[in-house]
Amino acid sequence: MSHVVPRQNRARKSPMYCFIGAFPPCEARGQPAGRSRGDIPRKDFRKMRRFFRLFLAAIGLVLAVCRGASAAPALEASDVAELVDPIMTEWIDHGGAGAVVMVVDRDRTIFAKGYGLADKDTNRPFTAGRTLVRPGSISKLFTGIAAMQLVDEGTLDLDRDVSDYVGFAIPTPPGGRPVTLRLLLTHRAGFEEHFKDLFSRASEPMPLAAWVAKSLPPRIFPNGDVTAYSNYGMALAGYVVERVSGESFPTYVERHILTPLRMERATFRQPLPESLAPLMAKGYRGLGWPPLDYFETIAAAPAGALAATGEDMGRFMRAILNGGELDGARILPSARLEQMLTRDAPGGELGLVFIMRRLGGAEAVGHGGGTQAFFSDLELFRESGVGVFVSRDGFSDQQSPPDVAQALAKRLAPEEAPAAAAPADPRLAGVYRGSRRAETNFMSVMALASQQLIRVEPDGGLRLLPALWPFGAGRAMKPVGADVYEGPGGWRFSAVLGAEPYLDGGGQRLMRAPWAIDARWLVPAFAASAAFALFSLLAWPVAALWRRWRKRASDLPPADRRWLVIVRLAVLADLLVIAALATLAARNDASLLNDALDPALIAIYALAWLGAPGGGVALFVAVDFWRRRVGGRWTRLHQSALAASGLVIGYVFLVFHVAGTTLNY
Fold first, then answer.
1. What percentage of the chain reaches a pLDDT higher than 70?
2. CATH architecture of 77-412
3. Residue ranges per structural domain of the chain
4. pTM of the prediction?
């Protein structure tokens, strides 16, 4: 990257400079030589000019003193330590493994400290300069800057169909918009959430070109008007950089961002270079979980593969705070960076990759990130010229994670009482699902767990609770403006009223969940159905053994007993599918979602397709038993309950694609 003159050495021009001598003398601009305006002698005019210089300089000095007196005192290491040490020490005391905190301003590192251990087996301490962490989705900021470098060169166009760049067609559904770089960088391309091959135990990732071509998900919001945060979309943007630049993505970022900023212990390379591998912290996922025994290899590298020390992330923050420049090295023209830091839509929270939120009384811009083991946050308080980066290794047993950025924001700009805002409209009450979701494959069942029940509170605010368990305190969202609500952590949601109200915020849109998939009734119904199906299946051999011990034959005709066998085989298939998916979820390891899982997934699909019609068969048997009065009343009631359970389970399998076909999820 080119080196440029530091900003403080560049001449700034103003019309006032004509009066204080920075521009050529006035006679050079059309005045008769030797005379000035109003026929004032040259000697007297020069005296007047010197007087104005001294006068303006005195005013400037007074203003500077006044600004200094009114500004908040400079933030020092002791101030940050007083705020941060208690927060992070408590987190370590509650079982957290290790963490790093970096606080910088435009000119220096204010605070850099590691907490806990990077490796418990060897007692290797966590440090700011010699411990690598995985910042996760904060990697997307580097991807966005890389793309904007090429936009600034004229090599890329923000509004051109990216199919022209990547070498394969990205379908545009009827009535939709082609995918553009702008849509990718603002998470409005409309891709459904993608999981497969995102994390891997392999030492080397699948090539980015192969991953984006293989993993192309459907566009469930193709009009470009719905925010739906997408790892795939950002990986695709990184692949555009790779194709157009002719360099691999890790090499491009290294040459054009990391090296110019002297981020010497930061890389997108997987596996880590030999010089950096010993510095990587172990991934301690949380209490009761063993550490990861592998390096988290991420195929969608532009979306989250960065590894870096806290000190390196500090240099990155300083470059952003300085308008894209650090120590004479510029990674992006200030105007382009400002474009990234500007909200893409009025009242929105997204710029080009950067995310805006309010912390305390301060406006922050940055990004969060998470892998399977590391949880990170990068926030820039541009008005104060301060940046904070925090990365935690795993969880503790605290109910809420430590929020260093929030504490720092309150120190920089104490929160003021919000102005009175109109109370929430009662029409906002209901159950919502996020736009960041899978919709066409079996992972769509996860959307049930993420549904939110929104209640309108008597004080005019909103309260968000999990729809599948709508009890407890939930999250209070207070009104802070016209149809704008703010919750814990500074996240804001903008409500849009209409035929179908929705809320925008948190990198996605909260949209009304149809009654047919409302988790409030569907999850309890499914749980009760699975429990009854299991009871019925276990009771079947028990009843047979009981009759054999009592030497009593079944009073059902052989044909009816065969129907019952068919029903229970369908129930068995249902329960095997549920058990398989529950086991997969309990493993809590995203690296299992790869091609090696395909045979098991095909078997799950086959069993689900066998079990799903079982409810219909059970209903036929129950109706037939009541019509012909087969068996006793309890037998017929049992068959009716079993039919209802089978129908609910089959409904879930079909609606959420557990009875599916695709291996791209």
1. 88
2. 3-Layer(aba) Sandwich (3.40)
3. 7-70, 77-412, 426-513, 519-655
4. 0.86
